[in-house]
Amino acid sequence: MTGDDNDPRRVAPSSQSIDLVIRLGFLGLLGYWSFTVIAPLLTILLWSAVLTVALYPLFEWVAHALGRRDLAALIVTSLCLLIVVGPVTWLGFGLIDAVGSLTKGLDTGQLAIPLPPESVKLWPLIGEHLHRIWLLAATNLEAALVELAPQLKPLGSRLLEMAQSAFVGLVELLVSIVVMGFLLTRGPQLVEASTAFLGRVLSHRGKETVQLVGATIRNVSRGVVGIALLQSILAGIGFIAAGFPSASVLAFLTLLLSIAQIGPAILLIPITLWSWTTMDTKVALFFTIYMVFVGVIDNVLRPLVMARGLATPMAIIMIGVIGGIIAYGIVGLFFGPMVLSVAWAVMVVWVQGGDAQSHDPWAA
Question: What residue spans define the domains of the chain?
Answer without folding.
Answer: 41-185, 202-350
